[in-house]
Amino acid sequence: MFGGQKKTISPDSSSGKEHQYQNNHYDPDLGRLADNEHDDDLQLHFSPSRERRLLAKIDFRVIPVLSILYLLAFLDRTNIANASIFGLQEELGITDSAKYNTALTIFFVPYIVFEIPSNILLKKLKPHATRFFLGLAETGMFPGSFYLIGMWYRRFEAQKRYSFFFGSTSLAGAFGGLLASAIGKMDGMRGYKGWRWIFILEGVLTTVVAIIFFFVIPDFPENAKWLNEEERAYVQARLRKDQGRSAAERPIGARDVVNVFKDYKIFLGGFMYFGLIVPAYGYAFFAPGIIRSYGYSQIQTQLHSVPPWAASFTFAMVIAYFSDLFKHRFAFEILPICLAITGFGILFTVHDNHHLQYGALFMVTMGVYSAMPVIVCHFNLNLGGHHRRAVGTAWQIGFGNIGGIIATYAFLPKDRPKFYRPGYAICISFICLSAASCIAYAASLVMQNRQRDKAPRSLLTEYEKTEKGDLNPEYRYSL
C-alpha cells in the first residue's frame, strides 16, 4: 500500500518551543505544488491510490455531516419567508409596518456578536456543541464548519468541499420551498395555520437530527478517532507541507486575536463577504414575496421558488470544479459577481415581463451563491495556522453578517408599489462593494508575494514561522 519504506512520525517533543519544530521541513513555495508532485518529503509516504482512498474516507465523514447540519440551520433561519406566504404577517398583524423586518433582524444580533468567541471555544472544546436564541444557538455553526473543513484539506483541493457545504444553503432553499408547499396544505389542521406547522415540523426535524449528529460530528485531524495512527500522521503532514504548521497544541489567547487585526487583509476579507451577504439574505428572506407578486398562488409561489435555488447549487459546483482545476480563486469570484449584478439590473429596470424577471432570479442566485463560498475559501485558506484561521474566519463571517441586518430592511412593504426598486439598488451597491474588495484583496496578495520573493531568506526559527502563520515571510499566498 505504501510507495517505499514505511516510516513513522514521532510525537512533537515538549522539551522546548524551538526544539519542538527543529526537525520539520517547511516548504518556501507553499501553494504552488504541481499536479503531479507527490509528497515525497513527507515523513510518512502514501501511494497516490491510498491517498485518494483516504480523501474519500475524510469526505464521507466530514462533509455530509456538516452539510446536513447547515442545511437544517439555514432552513430554520429562512423558513420565516415561506411562513409569511401562509399568513404569518396577517395573523400577527404586521402586514403594513416594518415589524416583520425587525423580526428578521433580531436573529443577527447574537449571530454577529458571538462569532469569534464561538470559534475560540471550538478550538478548546472540539467541534461536537425566540429568533434571538436561534441566532445565539447557530452562531458557531457556519464559521466553525468552514474553520473545520479548512483544517482537513489542502488549499487547492478544498473549493469543491467548501462549495458543496455552502451549497446546502441552496438545497435548503429548494427543500424549504417544496416542504412548505406540502406543509401549507395542513392549514387549519388542529386549529393551526399553515405557517405554524412550518415552524413546528421543521423545528422537530432539526432537533432530532442534531441529537443524532452530536455523536458523529468530526473532530480536528489530530483528534479523529476514526482514522488510524498512520492516517492521522499523514493528514497532518500533508497539511503542514501545504499550509505550514498549525500550532494546534497551543490555546488561542487575547494577544492572538489582537495580532490578527494588525493585518489589513483581514478587513478586506470581511468586506468581500459583507458585500454579498446583503443580496444573499435579501433574496432568501424576500424571494417568496417577490415571486408571488408575479401573480402566483401560495402553493405555486413555493414551487416556483425551488428552481432558482437548485440552479444555484449546480452552478456553484461547476465554479468550484474549475476553480480547483485551475488552482485559482479570484476570477471565479468576479465572474459570478458580474452575473449577479446583471440579474439585479434586470429586476431593477424590467417590471412588465414576468418570465424575464423570473429568469433574472436564476442569475441572482447563481451569481451570489456561487461567489460566496469561493470568497470564504480563498480568504480562509490564505490564513496560516489554527490561531489566525480561527479568528480570521469568525471575523469574516461575523462582520459579513452585519449585512444580514441591512438585508432585512432592504425590501420594505412601502416599496411594493415601486416594484422593490430601492431593494434592488441596495443589493447592486453592496455587490459592487464586494467586487472592489475582492480586487483590492487580490492585489494585496500579488504585492506581498512579490515583496517576499525579492526579500532575503528568512532567519526565523521554525517556531517563529509557526507563530506568524501566513505572515511568515516564506509563506506564499494563493490567488
Please give a structural write-up.
67% of the residues lie in helices and 0% in strands. With 479 residues, the chain is mainly alpha-helical. Helix 14 runs antiparallel to helix 15 and helix 14 packs parallel to helix 19. The longest helix is centred in the first third of the chain and has 38 residues. It is globular and about 70 Å long. The two termini are 35 Å apart. The N terminus is likely disordered.
Summarize this, please?
The chain is an all-alpha fold. Helix content is 67%, strand content 0%.
The dominant shape is globular
pLDDT < 50 runs, ≥5 residues: 1-43
**Oligomer designation:** single chain
Main β-sheet description: none
Overall strand count: 0
What is the string of helix and strand elements?
A: HHHHHHHHHHHHHHHHHHHHHH
Number of helices: 22
- Overall pLDDT score: 82
Helix content bin: 55-70%
Alpha-carbon distance between the two ends = 35 Å
Structural classification: mainly alpha
The radius of gyration is 23 Å
Strand content: under 5%
Tag the structure with descriptive keywords.
0% strand; single chain; disordered N terminus; mainly alpha; 479 residues; globular; 22 helices
How do the helices and strands line up, and which of them pair or pack?
Layout: H1 17-21, H2 48-85, H3 88-92, H4 99-106, H5 108-113, H6 115-125, H7 131-138, H8 141-150, H9 159-166, H10 168-183, H11 194-213, H12 229-243, H13 254-260, H14 265-292, H15 298-304, H16 306-325, H17 330-349, H18 354-380, H19 385-400, H20 402-408, H21 421-454, H22 462-468
Helix pairs in contact: 2-8, 2-9, 2-10, 2-11, 2-14, 4-20, 6-19, 8-19, 9-16, 9-18, 10-15, 10-16, 14-15, 14-18, 14-19, 14-20, 14-21, 16-18, 17-18, 17-21
